[in-house]
Every structure is written in C-alpha cells, then in structure tokens.
Write a structure and sequence with these properties.
Elements (H helix, E strand, L loop, with lengths): L6 H25 L11 H4 L1 H16 L5 E5 L7 E6 L3 E10 L19 E3 L2 E3 L3 H20 L5 E8 L9 H7 L1 H4 L4 E4 L11 E6 L1 E10 L5 E2 H4 L6 H12 L18 H14 L2 H4 L14 H10 L2 E8 L10 E2 L2 E10 L5 H13 L7 E6 L6 E2 L5 H15 L4 E5 L4 H9 L4 E4 L15 E3 H21 L5 H13 L2
Parallel strand pairs: 3-6, 3-7, 7-17, 8-16
Antiparallel strand pairs: 1-2, 2-6, 4-5, 5-18, 8-15, 9-13, 9-14, 10-12, 11-13
Helix pairs in contact: 1-3, 1-4, 1-15, 3-4, 4-15, 8-12, 9-11, 13-15
The structure holds zinc ion.
The site of zinc ion has 5 residues, from α4.
Length: about 500
C-alpha cells in the first residue's frame, strides 16, 4: 500500500518548526520555576505552574491546527491538566502523554548555566525541565501538525499533559476518571518522558521496575550500655540487622534471595538486552562516577542491563540509631533501624514480595531480639505488552528514516507509576515509551540539557508511527484508496 507520508519533507518541516518556534518557546519555558507541588507547597500562590501551562497553551493556539480542541482542565484543589484533542479519520484513539512540572533546581550547575537560565550550547538547550519533560507537548503537537500539513489520515489523537508527575502523579487518577469518556480506549499510548541509551537512534522503553521496601528496626536494650561491659553479653543490633539482611540478600554477590522478589525474564526481553548491550558497549558501566578503583558488579554489559532492569535490587537508603561519627561514644547502642529500598522486577507481584520481606525479616529473631519491618506502599513495575509486528516495523523504519539506524529496545531500572496504571486500564493498548534523557542529560541533577537534534528526530519518529498506526487501524490515505479502486476497476 502506498504511504503518502513523505518522511524527508517531514524532517525539513519539523526541523524548521523546532528552530523557529519550539526552541524559542522552550527557552521561555526554562525561565519559569514551576516546580512540582512536592517541591513547592505554595505552587498555587506562586502561579508558576499556571504560567507554564499558559505558555504551552498559547504556543499550541499559535500553530492553528484545524479542528484541534484545546482546554486546560482543573479539578478544584488539584494541579491542572492540558488536553488537546485532534479528531481523526476514525474513532480509534492514540493517547500522547507528557508533563510540564519540574524537579527542584539542585546545586552544582556549571559556570554560566543554571536551572532557570536557558543557554543553548553545542546544539543543547540547558536548563531545568526542557528535556524532562517540557519538550513533550511541543513535540507531540508538531508531529500532529505535520500530519495535517501533509494531509495524511490518522486516528483521533489526545495529547494529555499533566503537571504533577515529579510528585508521583497523585492527581492523575482523578483526571483519568474525570476524562474517561474523552479518553475512551486508546489502542496506542505514546509516552515522551523516558530515557534513551544514546543520541544515535530511537530508544523504546520496554519495561520499568517496581519500587517498595520499608523500615527494619532491631532493638536489644531499652537503653544504651557501656560497650566494655555489654559486648560479649548483649547482642549488637547492628550484627543482628546484618544477619537479617543476609536472609534477603547474598552479601557476596548482591543477589536478592527471596524467590517472591524475582520474575522470569521473557525471551523477547532477553534478546533485546543482548542487542542493547551490543549497541551500548561499556557505556552502562562507565556512566557512573566510580570512586577510586571501584568496578561495576559485572564486566558483561548484558548482565548489567539484566541486573538493572529485570532483577530485584536492594539498597539501604537511610538509618536511625546510629549517631554521626564525630559523636559516637563507646556504647552498645540499643537500636538499629535501616530504611530498606527494594526495586522489584517489572512483572513481580509487589504486594506478595513485600509480604515475603516482612515475613522473612521478622521470623525467629536472633537472641529473641525485638525486630519489626514496617513496609511502605509499593509501586508496581510494568512490562510492555508484546509489541505488535506492525509497531516494531514502524519504529524501526521511523528510526532508520530519522537517525539512519534501527530502533533499540531497553528496560528502565526506575519506576513510572502512571505506566502501570495505564497498562492495567488499557490491557489491549500498544505502548511507545521513549524520551530524550540520554547520556549526561542529567534530568533531576545539575546541567540538565535537551539534545535538540534528538528531539527533532524523535518528533519525526512520532509522526511516522502515527501514520502507520492510522493505516493499521483501517484508515487509508485518499491516494491509496484511489489506487485500489483503480485496480479493482481493472480487474474482472
Ligand atoms: Zn519526567
């Protein structure tokens, strides 16, 4: 079937829109300190969020997309949501997602750079929130505008931009309920808030890990005692905590021991890990600021990717009962409390895993010590449904057209609770989760940047995927419909 979408022309047009219109808008956007509500309790009074939403809204209006319905929806007491709906040639729906709230400024920006100071240097726009995730609304609308400009048919597209993501998207479920009739049942979800392994191809996020854990507390005394008198008589809470942790993690390898915290890695994901490892080389291990001669946990990149995306992983992220070193006396301390942070594999049952943690940590305490594990609410991980052949083909072709290389698939070690939410709500949908957060782009940290060429190419990829999705959902371009009817006429 003829594809009436001209990807070369799309590149030129989208590059122009980025250069003339999107970059200036994002420069203004960086200046707005619209931190997510978790970091700015007075966000309403400050008005920054409203300003950021107004900026995006005015930009969309200035593009004058025929038929586009645009509104800011705001439930009382909640952060606003920007909703843009473009009717399509069918009622099949594509949901495009992004967010406009930002992480806090952070210290350590290099000279001349700053969170609210937009600077363009070497093809990168520096400043907080352009890459995470301000560009998403502009890229989405620019992709839709290009489909209109080329008069290519597409499904109904709904661009949903929230302003609470960096606070855990706690306002989003209420909007999903409120907007359920508008959202319908999307057959494709496009999320532009993820990472990329490099800036040389389209990266598709295949899975996210879950996150949970809790506080392990061990007490052996009601008050501290002279360590000269007590050691050898009273068991150390630190040693007991070590023994308890040994029940859930092998201290030599870092492997989490509880079967409830593991999940099988699907074969397709295994293959994708091998392919991503071949592309990334030693990039996974070298991406961290290792101290001294510290090595990564494995020499093999595929093993590191497997560890990070499909295995559970534990870290102690905080402690109580331990004074700072400068005020540590010679005392046998009464209590050690540790904050246990656990990453769960994408498909692990986090509730069952958390219950197993509690059971194993509290069972049969050494010396009869007082031991408790207070679990935290766990966020589920997510594994994309098996990619439909049309989608993998479309992503590869889009990546080849835009970047000159096929797409690559990779899991993320982090968590986006919203994706698990959407995955449960729309089990039949296909997902394209992608983003511009590549090497050194440093979202959440200092010197965050948006790699402009990558954002442009990604915009083209989104347009191309929407075209193929439209065709897959039975919409034909006028050209191909004409052609077929000609063919039909010729044949008996
Ligand atoms: Zn984000």
């Amino acid at each position: 079937m003829v594809n009436s979408f001209d990807s070369n022309a799309a590149h030129g047009a989208i590059a122009d829109v980025w250069c003339e219109s999107i970059v200036p808008a994002l420069v203004e956007y960086v200046r707005i300190p619209n931190q997510s509500p978790a970091f700015d309790g007075d966000w309403r009074a400050h008005g920054h969020m409203d300003r950021a939403v107004a900026l995006a809204r005015q930009w969309i209006e200035s593009r004058r997309l025929p038929g586009l319905r645009l509104e800011v929806v705001q439930i009382d007491g909640r952060t606003p949501v920007l909703l843009a709906e473009l009717p399509g040639a069918s009622n099949d729906t594509v949901l495009l997602y992004g967010h406009l709230d930002k992480q806090p400024p952070m210290h350590g920006w290099s000279d001349g750079l700053g969170p609210w100071t937009p600077v363009i240097r070497d093809g990168r726009l520096y400043g907080r929130g352009a890459a995470d995730d301000g560009y998403a609304v502009f890229a989405s609308i620019a992709a839709l505008a290009e489909l209109q400009r080329q008069a290519v048919p597409h499904a109904r597209c709904l661009v949903l931009i929230e302003t609470c993501e960096e606070s855990g998207s706690y306002d989003l479920p209420a909007y999903l309920d409120l907007l359920a009739p508008r959202i319908g049942t999307p057959s494709l979800v496009i999320c532009l808030d993820s990472g990329c392994g490099d800036y040389e191809r389209l990266w598709v996020t295949t899975s996210l890990r879950g996150l949970g854990g809790g506080t392990l507390s061990v007490s052996t005394l009601d008050e501290g005692a002279h360590s000269g008198a007590a050691t050898g008589v009273v068991p150390s809470t630190f040693r007991i905590a070590r023994r308890l942790l040994d029940r859930i993690e092998d201290a030599d390898s870092g492997r989490v021991l509880l079967p409830e915290l593991h999940a099988d890695i699907p074969e397709q994901r295994q293959r994708q890990i091998e392919a991503a490892a071949a592309v990334l080389g030693d990039g996974v291990a070298t991406g961290f600021a290792f101290a001294g001669d510290t090595r990564a946990m494995a020499a093999d990149t595929a093993e590191l990717l497997r560890n990070r995306t499909w295995l559970p992983g534990m870290e102690i992220t905080g402690a109580d009962g331990l004074p700072a070193i400068t005020s540590a006396g010679n005392v046998l301390r009464p209590t050690t409390a540790l904050k246990v942070s656990m990453r769960f594999p994408p498909t692990a049952d986090t509730r069952r895993g958390t219950a197993a943690l509690k059971h194993v940590l509290e069972a049969d305490p050494p010396y009869g010590a007082r031991v408790s594990f207070t679990a935290e609410h766990a966020a589920d991980g997510w594994n994309a449904p098996p990619e439909a052949p049309w989608l993998t083909e479309a992503l590869d072709r889009a990546s080849l057209d835009s970047f000159g290389k096929p797409a690559c698939y990779i899991g993320e070690g982090g968590t986006i609770p919203f994706m698990a939410m959407l995955g449960r709500k729309f089990p039949a949908a296909q997902f394209v989760i992608t983003g511009v957060l590549g090497p050194k782009s440093n979202a959440h940290g200092p010197n965050e940047f948006l790699e402009l060429a990558t954002a442009e190419r990604l915009t083209c990829c989104i347009a191309a995927v929407l075209v193929t999705h439209g065709r897959e959902s039975g919409i034909e371009s006028r050209e191909s419909a004409d052609e077929r009817s000609t063919t039909v006429n010729r044949e008996p």
